[in-house]
Write a structure and sequence with these properties.
By secondary structure, this protein is an alpha/beta fold. The protein has 5 helices and 7 strands. The protein has a 7-stranded mixed beta sheet with strand order 2-1-3-4-5-6-7. β4 and β5 form a beta hairpin. Bound molecules: inosinic acid (IMP).
Length: 198
Amino acid sequence: MKEVVLASSNPHKIEEIYEILKTLEYKILSMKEVGLGDMDIVEDGDTFEANSLIKAKAVYEATKMPAIGDDSGLMVDYLNGEPGVYSARYSGEDKNYAANNEKLLKNLEGVPMEKRGAKFVTVITLMFSPEDYVVARGEVHGLIGEELKGSNGFGYDPLFVVPEKGKTFAELTSDEKNSISHRANALVKLQEILKERG
Ligand code: IMP
């Protein structure tokens, strides 16, 4: 089985990506498993694409093994796409989920439901070498709720309402979220690209 290192230290994301990639013929190794547990990657790109490439390249360069970089975030229509690439640090450098949600609710105070459209975006780069890599983008559309609901998932999940389900991501089971999420959509695309490559 081919091995690939996942350039992420976020345990929630690792778990979701592991779950979804179980079907692929790749063994996913964490940064910890290849001795990069404390490697700090500076994500200073302006786009999800740029940041996912930065992450994949950093891990590839350190290991010379195929590497997956993933960058994701929330884009809110009313806020012109914010917080976007700054989703993790929306309320400050300490990447506090509760404070981020509080700030988002505050910035949307009084905004009616029909104007609270948003999407989660994930871009995944699978790098075989700096000259040979594939990029897959996945999105999921929803609305930003007026209050926190549910306790599953992480980050903005308690505010991200999936209209077709009438529930937030945090009210869905992990299987339900993993079947429709931005990350799942990006991984499905990645699978298609890999099949085409043979
Ligand atoms: P990262 O840069 O890809 O680690 O993700 C940036 C930030 O986007 C995370 O810290 C979360 O705040 C948010 N985010 C990304 N994916 C999700 C998700 O599936 N649910 C909730 N928040 C997410």
